[in-house]
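Side project, low priority. Logging it here so it doesn't get lost.
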Amino acid sequence: MTKDRSKVFLFIDNDPHPIAELETPIVFDLDTQKLPDGDHVLKIVSRSPSGKEGIKKINFTISNGPAIKIEGLKNKDVVDGTLSLMINAYDKGNQKSFLITGSETPQTIPFWIWVIIILFAGWAAYYEITSSAVQ
């Protein structure tokens, strides 16, 4: 006894040819390594046994390449002169192991941290001087 099942056709971006034609229900593994990094659209077209169709579109972004971190320049900054940039690029490795080497981007100490350190050091010096004068 066979039961008629709905079919789904999976399309990536504007490709007229589906990447898969499957009967539902199904678990499908989409290999993003075969697609370039950036914005994409997964279009799912379903067809019921009676011939009716439904469409669902899902926008997603692929970022398989190495992560890039930059310090010293932000998007849409207005700059002049020479810029000192700190740039780091690191890979995530595969999904079964984590790469420690190069996965952390060193950062400069923010200005407000320096202000707090100087204020604390000044207060500590003042406290030491005034408490030793009392004795």
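Brief comment: The longest strand covers residues 38-47.
Revisit when time allows.
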